[in-house]
Amino acid sequence: MTSSEVAVTNLLYTYAEMIDAGRFEELGDGLFAHAEFIVAAPPAPRLDGPGMSRLLVATTIRHGDGTPRTKHVLTNPIVEVDEEAGTATCRSYYTVLQQTDTLPLQPIVAGRYHDRFARIDGQWCFAERDYTMLDMIGDISQHLRINPTRS
Fold it and tell me: 124 - beta bridge partners?
């Protein structure tokens, strides 16, 4: 794995770590500062980093410890880097596990991410994430305030 591939996959894992810690407010101006997000099929508008951060705050349930009580497991990253252009793409799978005081440990949702990245000032950054590839859904009653299958 090249250093660029490692940097890109580290961004995936940092995202999962921040989400599971309930650090949604930090994403907009940090990890997502240069990104656009597809959250619904066109003609729905794309969100910028701060907009995505606000959406996560508004729709994700945080429990008594301030976290969503989840573990995002990211697997099968297929990273393709164009060093000359300073761009990269990654296709990956995600599975979200959750356990709360009343919900036993279980997978609650699974899907795919298609991400684009750009090297800005020498650092790899998220450029685009498509959140629309939700493949399986379980009991999300203690995770989201919305139904993600409705646009």
Answer: 119
